[in-house]
Structures are given as structure tokens and as C-alpha cells.
């Protein structure tokens, strides 16, 4: 089926969508993006995605070409036109088209694109089986809090995971886990305490991470936002990852080492259940 995509105010079949070779995202990865989950044709946690988009744009001194209502309308229109029931909407805003020069152009019009992707989020085989991760050095730049389209280090990491038959790679800096290539990283220690790295420029402030921390607190589950090492993760009773495109997934092996009894544990099962309920009702 040909998807309908969005380019700068127009909806069109995907094979008719065109972007200039001078677009700054193509030449410099000078753009930001958001990926919002869709369940039952409705978006999950859209407002925090838009808040993070504004933050990323502000950090790069880029103007937002559309108001929040127009951004929501664009997402809803893409969901409607493509009959998307479950999956994601991808949106990207770039600094626009200008002759190649490193400094920011003064009069470029931002480029805005959007498209949908079908993906099973609720009934996920990975949630049933659990997934495996490998650890790799974090070779990214120092502003990982900005959701920029500069994702080559993450693509290399995901490829390293694939080479090792793993689902995800956890990136490690100074001995401490930063995050997954496209997900936030969590462990469960002492049987009932959730640990995840504190927010800083070192990691992306995950929208799903935020929701999980809130749901955990509401459910009376202790949360520690702090650094943790690979060794601590390998010794944890459970480990899991979160992202808009996978929600909450249990991790059953890290670098080949079994976590807990090697099957999805009770804390992550509970969190996934609570999160799915919230997502479905959103
Ligand atoms: N960390 C990184 C590096 C990511 O790329 C992502 C998502 O793409 C996440 C964390 C999870 O963020 P979210 O829950 O907002 O999808």
C-alpha cells in the first residue's frame, strides 16, 4: 500500500515526496525529530513529545514553523489518511534549504515532514520472550539530550547488536550505562527498586521513561535516578528498556549473561501492563 506522507503543508503519496539535496538535514543532520506511538488510532503521550520537540528546536536556535494545534492536526491527518491503528508517526523538522555553509542561514524556511509506520506495539513477541542486549562504547556527541537526526552512532550500535544477534545495544561511558541506541535503559535491584540514569546532556529525556517513572511512583515502586555500571546491570534481578516504539520490553540477557532467571520478571511485567492500560486509554 502506498502511504500518504506530509511534506511542508501538503499530503501526497510517498513516491511523490521530494526534498532538496540542499536541505540542511541531508548535508549536516541539522534537524530534529519525534516518534509518537499510536494505539487504536490514537496518539500516546503526544504533549510531552511536543514539549521535547520545542526543547530540541530551542537548543538549536530553530524556529518551530507550525503551532502545536497544527502539529497535532498533521499527525491526526496522517493517522486518518493511512488508516493507522497501531504503530508510530515520525515527524522531522529541519533548518531548511540553503547553499552549503556551516553557519545557520538567516532566511531558510524550515522543512517539515511526517509519515506513519505500522508496528505491533501491544501484542509484541519481544515482550513475551524478552530481548537481548550487548554493551558497546558510547561514541556519540555531547548533546544527547537533543533529539537530533544525527543518528549514525546509533545506527552503528544497532548494527553491532544485529551482528551479535541482539535486539538492542546499551551504550557505555566511563563504565556506566548511558542508554540504548533508541531506548532508555533500566534495571531492577534488590528485587523491587527501579534504577535508571539521571537526566543530563548525556542521555535523551525519554517520553516513555518519564511515563514509567511516574507510573512506578504511583504504584509505590521505589525509583532511583542514578548511574549504574554494566556489572550492576548484569547482577540485577531484572532489566528493561523503554521507548515510544516498543513501550516497555524485558531484557533477559546482557552480553550473553542471563539476567535473573533468564525470563521476563514480575516488575517489568507489571510496568508493561500498567503502561499498556494507560496507552490504550490515552
Ligand atoms: N534514548 C534514545 C537515544 C532514543 O533514540 C530514544 C527513542 O528514540 C529513547 C531513548 C526513548 O525515548 P522515547 O521514550 O521518547 O521514545
Structural account:
It is a single chain. The protein is of the alpha+beta class and 282 residues long. The protein has two domains: 4-118, Aminotransferase class 4, branched-chain amino acid transferase, N-terminal domain (D-amino Acid Aminotransferase, Chain A, domain 1, 2-Layer Sandwich); 125-280, Alpha-Beta Barrel (D-amino Acid Aminotransferase, Chain A, domain 2), CATH 3.20.10.10. The chain is 30% helix and 29% strand. It contains eight helices and 15 strands. The protein has helices at residues 24-28, 46-59, 68-81, 125-129, 152-163, 207-218, 230-235, 266-281, and strands at residues 4-7, 10-13, 31-39, 42-43, 87-94, 111-118, 131-137, 168-173, 176-180, 184-189, 193-196, 222-225, 238-243, 247-254, 257-258. The strands form two sheets. Strands 7, 8, 9, 10, 11, 12, 13, 14 and 15 form a nine-stranded mixed sheet that branches. A six-stranded antiparallel sheet has the order 2-1-6-5-3-4. The longest helix is centred in the C-terminal third of the chain and has 16 residues, at 266-281. The protein is globular and about 55 Å long. The mean pLDDT is 97. It binds pyridoxal-5'-phosphate (PLP). Pyridoxal-5'-phosphate binds next to helix 6 and strand 13.
Amino acid at each position: 500500500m502506498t502511504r500518504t506522507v506530509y511534506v511542508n503543508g501538503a499530503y501526497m503519496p510517498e513516491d511523490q515526496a521530494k526534498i532538496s539535496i540542499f536541505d540542511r538535514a541531508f548535508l549536516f543532520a541539522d534537524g530534529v525529530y519525534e516518534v509518537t506511538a499510536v494505539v487504536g488510532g490514537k496518539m500516546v503521550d503526544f504533549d510531552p513529545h511536543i514539549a521535547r520537540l520545542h526543547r530540541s528546536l530551542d537548543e538549536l536556535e530553530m524556529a518551530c514553523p507550525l503551532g502545536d494545534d497544527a502539529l497535532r492536526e498533521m499527525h491526526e491527518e496522517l493517522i486518518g489518511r493511512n488508516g493507522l491503528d497501531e504503530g508510530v508517526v515520525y515527524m522531522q523538522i529541519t533548518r531548511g534549504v540553503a547553499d552549503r555553509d556551516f553557519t545557520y542561514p538567516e532566511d531558510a524556511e524550515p522543512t517539515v515532514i511526517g509519515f506513519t509506520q505500522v508496528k505491533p506495539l501491544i501484542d509484541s513477541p519481544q515482550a513475551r520472550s524478552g530481548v537481548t542486549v550487548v554493551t558497546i562504547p558510547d561514541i556519540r556527541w555531547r548533546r544527547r539530550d537533543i533529539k537530533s537526526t544525527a543518528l549514525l552512532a546509533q545506527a552503528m550500535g544497532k548494527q553491532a547488536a544485529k551482528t551479535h544477534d541482539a535486539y538492542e545495544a546499551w551504550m557505555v561511558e566511563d563504565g556506566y550505562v548511558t542508554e540504548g541506541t533508541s531506548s532508555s535503559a533500566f534495571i531492577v535491584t534488590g528485587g523491587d527498586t527501579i534504577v535508571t540514569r539521571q537526566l543530563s546532556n548525556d542521555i535523551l529525556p525519554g517520553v516513555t521513561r518519564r511515563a514509567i517513572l511516574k507510573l512506578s511512583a504511583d504504584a509505590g515502586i521505589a525509583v532511583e535516578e542514578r548511574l549504574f555500571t554494566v556489572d550492576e546491570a548484569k547482577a540485577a534481578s531484572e532489566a528493561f528498556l523503554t521507548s515510544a516504539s516498543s513501550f516497555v520490553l524485558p531484557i533477559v540477557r546482557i552480553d550473553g549473561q542471563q539476567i535473573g532467571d533468564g525470563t521476563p520478571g514480575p516488575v517489568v511485567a507489571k510496568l508493561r501492563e500498567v503502561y499498556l492500560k494507560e496507552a490504550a486509554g490515552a
